[in-house]
Amino acid sequence: MTSTSLVATSAARLIQTHQILKQSEFYLGGDQVLKKVKWVRDRRADRLVVNDGASSDGSFEMASLSAIVRVDHNDFWMTPDAGYQKPSAVWKDLLDVKPSCVVSTPDLQPVKDEFQQVVANLQHLQDEMQMPGYEMGKAFFTGGHAQTQRFKVRHVLFEVSVGLELLGRQNLKMITQLLDDNGQSPDSDKPDFATANKWPLTHEETHAELQTVLMTHHIVPVPAYDIEGKLILPEAYCCALEDGIVEMHFGLSHFAIAGKKGMRSKDVFVGKIDVMQVLVPPRPTSSNVMKKRVVRMHLDPNTPISKKLRIV
Questions:
Q1: What pTM, to 2 d.p., does this model score?
Q2: Worst-scoring range by mean pLDDT, 2-16, 194-208, 281-295?
Q3: Which candidate, 56, 135, 139, 68, places its Cα nearest to that of 103?
Q4: Four-point Cα dihedral 277, 280, 281, 283, nearest 10
Q5: Domain spans, the chain
Q6: What spatial distance separates the first Cα and last Cα of the chain, rounded to whole Å?
């Protein structure tokens, strides 16, 4: 796709997607979404669900909120392993890793002006669940609740493999017998690159830990798609998403975290990505533009080397 056709395709896709989302009941840029969702208690968390009345069996459907946003280049950790190196205060182990990114105001109309409504609706949903005496955490909105224009969404990278969930971690010998040659459950529906041998890692030393994780879990690639609708490969997350404008669908959960050892209790909200698609690809920066180097066939020994190379 040429650059000219890409610009035209991006503009058309942005307008078309915006028109479709405006008809959706869960579009955060509209004024209907607050009537279509509600909070329900689910064990230790509160989930934002579809407000379609109470079911007889107590089941519910998670609401998938939607918005058109820019993937901010700041706080971008939407990489194959979120930069994991070793257990730390951020990630206790590799299994705990959840790639994330912060999204902000898209700079194109007609969605630019609607982002204020997106933020207002999300703040209203937060306010509905704020616990008395609890302070608002910064796991979702960044930079403070009152004046923020940025919020964070994340992706759950590992899920328990089908058929292994009930076996537990203690019966590893039985689990091992069910694994295929790639170290994953044969019943997991995965792309061929979502294996221990092919999944890119920030540090090669993490490979052994990844193999251990895949004894009971499988990798779930980020459900992110390019402008042509193709799944973005993990090694391309950064160049394909960072600073691009995307259609984002995500769920919202709330956790009331009681304070310990003198720390204040906090309301923590978590946005979990359902799917995202690039509408306008990231703009190339000056550092990404390849410059042509001119290499001469002969050097004048009487001229300083610093003047002999020329970049055009």
A1: 0.79
A2: 281-295
A3: 68
A4: -150
A5: 3-157+220-311
A6: 26
